[in-house]
Structure formats: structure tokens, C-alpha cells
Amino acid sequence: MAKWGEGDPRWIVEDRPDATNVNNWHWVEKNATNWSKDRIKELLLNLKVEHEKGTCEIKEITSIEGEASANNRKAKLIFFYEFEIKGVWSGILKDDVKSYKGQFVIPNLSEENDASEIDVNVTADKSCNEAHELKDIFRVEGAKLIRTQLEKYITDLKTEYGQNIILPTKNSDQTKTQTAQSVSNKEIKPKVELNKFVTSETSKPSDVGVRIHTKTLTMTETFQCQSSDLYRALTFKPMVEAYMGSGITFDATKGERFSLAGGNIVGDFVELIPDQKLVMRWRVKTWPPEHYSQVTIELSDKEGTTTLNLKQTGVPEAEVTKTKEGWKENYWNRMRQIFGFGGRIF
Fold first, then answer.
1. What 8-state DSSP symbol labels residue 104?
2. Residue 215 and residue 315 in contact, taking contact as beta carbons nearer than 8 Å
3. 3-class SS at 120?
4. Who contacts 35 (Cβ-Cβ below 8 Å, separation ≥6)?
5. Contact in structure between 291 and 326 (CB atoms under 8 Å)
6. What is the C-alpha to C-alpha distance for residues 110 and 237, in angstroms, rounded to an integer?
7. What is the per-residue pLDDT across 64-76, written as a single tens digit (0 to 9) for each?
């Protein structure tokens, strides 16, 4: 193996001391889900709300549903987290001997919301004045404390999982400033170009009900990743935004609609089998009104790679070539470039 400063300069291993993820190019992900659930529970359980009228306390965290991860893409740290938290609170008014309890739900702890925007929905088990008064204390004052604690979680996540995910490169201390300038000067323009959607020329819409001649489009692509990684890139909104651009409408759930690339692509999900299969109703806005194709994507692992087979029925005959080019440019090529699914880069 070549040493730094010796041998053929085309050897990319000289840019990293351990020759792993050279130049931090590939999408590297750390799963932070279990740690996050434990940390959230630690921060919220037994949290007390002191008020002049009484005291409330979180007695139990009944469920924490969701996931979290830390990602490195080209030496940039990106954190994803999305959780729904449910629990039980209890409270007692001053000069009272009877306590009351209820439920609370935090539906939107995610990187899309600031800590101050986190919702806390509160209910009481009993319908009486005392229970309602305690519920209001917990809903207002308790929500403030909960948001403060969850802000600590966000900070802790970035501290705990921001370590060792961006690995050192040769002369990293000396070139830190140059690297920042390079990222600033060189990556902004490609990013704009990357999010420029490739579509067909605008055509005059046909009347609904006109007979449309269609064909079936098939594609086979190979990616240097596991099927679970590729499925996640197709269904996890923050990753879809990475190659489609922000401002998309996207929830990979059966029956839910999606809108991508500024509304150029719309449709809904018909079937989802994690890491294996994805079926969608799918159309481009320049197609005849209300005409949808059906896209079936199947994934299969083989010797460290994943094969993607796409079958798209009902594509307007005149749009087959442009649609195939669109899949390649807007999906497969961008995914390979952004997530490092294209193999070793020289």
C-alpha cells in the first residue's frame, strides 16, 4: 500500500489514514434510535411541574415510536430524528388529598421542528373541575419543561453521535480552512444543478377520457449498498429531499399521496414491503390529465450489491424514452452521487 507522499498520486488511500470512506465521500449512517429512546425516557420520566395551585409529574413513558440517525455526507453532519412519545402524568392540587392522572402525547419531535414548536397534547382521565385544573397546569407549564428537556435531547444527540463519524484526512488540521472554502465555493453550484428536475417539454393537456396508447417500461439497476439502504433512500423523506430538493410532500405510507420536484411528479403509495418492494401510482404533470402509470420496484441483495428491478405500466407511448431518462437522471444517478451507492470513486 502506498504511503503518504509516495507512489502513484491516483491512490485515493493516501487521503485517509485507514483508507475507509475516503474524503468522507460516502453516506455514512449511525443508528441512534435505541440511544435516543433511552435518553428521552431518562429526560422525561419523573419530570415534576411545580405550580402555585398544585404539582404534576410524569409517571410513565408508555411508548416511544420512531427512529433517529446521524449521517455524514461529504464531511457534512446531518441528523435525522422523528418520534411520537406517549406517557402518563399525575397531579395533585394544594390542600387536596386526592390525585388525578391523565395521558399526554408528543406527536412531532423531529428535525423539521424547532424545540419551541413541539406539540404536547394532554388529556385527563376524570371529568371534574380538579382534574381539568391539573390538566391545564400540565398542558401549559408541563409543556414548557418538556420542550426544554427535549431540547437537551437534541443537543445530546448531536454531541454523542457527532463524534468519529467524520473521519480525519491527511493534513486535516492544516487544510480545515481550505476545505471549508472549497465546500463553500465549489459545492453550491453543483447542488443547484443537482436539484434541477429533468422533465419533458411542456405539452398541451389532452381532454380527460381521450384514448391513450401506452407501453410498459422496464429497468434494471445495480447499487453498491444493501437493499435496506436503498429502500430507505426511496421511502425516508429526508433522504428523498437530498436528491429531489426540499419542499416535497412525502409520506411513504399505503394510501398516502406524494408530490416531488416542484409538483412535476405526483402519485400515491399502493403497497410497501420494507427492503423488498414498492408499488406506486405515478405520473408526470405534462401527461394527459388524471392519467397514472403503475410503478413496481423490487429489490434483491446479491454479494454486497442490490439489484433494483423497475416495471412501469401505462406510460404514454410518446413519453417512454423521456420517462426512462428521468428515472436515470432524477433518481438513480443522483442517489449514487449523494449516498455513495455507485461504488468506489477514483
1. E
2. yes
3. coil
4. 68, 157, 160, 161
5. no
6. 12
7. 999 888 877 656 7
